[in-house]
Amino acid sequence: MGAPPWGCPCSRIDLGAFGNPTIRGGYNVTTFHSTRSTTDSLTSKQAIRQGIAADGGLFVTDALGETRVDVAALVGKSYQDIAVTVLDALLPDFSEAELRECVEAAYGPQWGDEAITPLKPLGEDWVLELFHGPTSAFKDVALQILPRFMARTAPADGGADEKIMIVTATSGDTGKAALAGFADAPGTGITVFYPQGKVSQVQELQMTTQTGSNVTVCAVEGNFDDAQSAVKRIFGDRDLAARLAGDAHVRLSSANSINVGRLVPQVVYYFSAYVQLVERGAITLGDEVEFCVPTGNFGDILAGYYAKLLGLPVKHLIVASDRNNVLFEFLTTGTYNRQRPFFQTISPSMDILISSNLERMLYYMSDKDSRLISMLMNDLNQWGAYEIPDEMLARIRHIFGCGWADEDQVRESIRDCWERNRYVIDPHTACGYFVLRQMPRDPSVPRVLLSTASPYKFPRVVNESLGFEATGTDFACMDVLARETGTTAPAALRGLENAAVRFDDVVAIDGMAGVVERAAHAL
């Protein structure tokens, strides 16, 4: 199969580059600005409402790394209590009462496990299950709380009648999780675009059957990168923004992980995983842990980097890619090149060549050099590639490891995990499982694999990998998987078979702005 299993040699991490972290004390309002300039000075509420900076950059705060979370104080706490503490450090202009209200609403009975993100043994390693939310994917962790954050923001000009239109491109899971979070939210609409024919049958039905008077779903001719690039252009279209503000009193915002309000809730489950390891006696407070993360857009693993900067003892963060291994290439060579073949794989949510959240990591790893980031992103836009300085790559490689799995290795990993552990994983998690199995092991450092989706979202691929019957519909495959493994399909997924399809429109890339404008006027 030939996929190099392990890149980016790792060594002990030197935190000196991140300044002198201090214990959080007192109330302060952290300001956010673009990764590409420092002209903005927004609160987190303003950054969440705006979604993306006017210059196309992503919102960051220079306070990250100066505030620490007391990990010891989290031991014995519920997920909800951990969330309030971690989010308080990242979003200081939200009051504790506001955060508590958001957390309690986001992480309640709609979750299938009271631990929200339970940690379970997986052979000599551990697996963090992130798929117990209402749409059976890790995106629920953030997208159940983002609408609550958004509801507590205010229009920049004080206009009480301003409404928000969430515009999102999805490679599979973000779309449904965002729809589930924002459906019928007051003062808000949501428009989701997905690449036609490039998501699983279950993923597509989750979106096209979505209920709610304020939702729009549309397939796009092209791949995810095409759709996401178009969404970014829509955000940068000042004429469209002026028309929407003047005619419909609508402001555009995002539910992709380019929105800082979507990113920071994911930091919480790294702290939760660590606390669960402590509570089980697997580690002692202060011991380092490694996390292996299947990722395409880099948001899921970036949250682990944020956790490290907040003081969590993270030794390494391992990027696991599928055949679209642009991140593996970057982390091993220092060159990011999107001018390469795009592969449609059995792990569709990772079929991405433009990893947007990498920009935030580069900002911090460049000692917060917004001018350099602007130059790199301009190169990516104009030439389809950029190259970072060797010193910067060396710093990144101290923390981030990487590996990738081809299609055969993904299938073999699903089967191997079942045969070894009697544990069923989906094809995205299988990418991480393969990388984890191939990388060198330090027996003194526990390893946690992030499981990003329920295997029932991809029952045909899972059944084929396990040698089970895989004919008929995806729903027939769900039933076979349940019978053969003794597990249970999430009711929300199994019930899609009889759900009515509401959305069947398909547009070209250049038709996306028109879809957004029509949806905004319908709010």
Sum this structure up briefly.
The protein has 523 residues and is α/β, with parallel strands linked by helices. It has 22 helices and 17 strands.
What key phrases describe this protein's structure?
globular, single chain, 523 residues, alpha/beta, 22 helices
Q: What form results from the Cα inertia axes?
A: globular
Average residue-wise pLDDT = 91
Spatial sequence of strands, sheet with the most strands: 5-6-16-11-12-15
CA radius of gyration is 21 Å
Oligomer kind: single chain
Helix fraction? 40-55%
Estimated share of beta-strand residues: 5-15%
Distance between the termini: 51 Å
* Number of helical elements: 22
Q: Biggest β-sheet: count, sense, barrel? A: 6 strands, mixed
Q: Kindly name the structural category.
A: alpha/beta
Number-wise, the strands total: 17
Q: In terms of per-residue confidence, which ranges show pLDDT below 50 for 5 or more consecutive residues?
A: 1-28
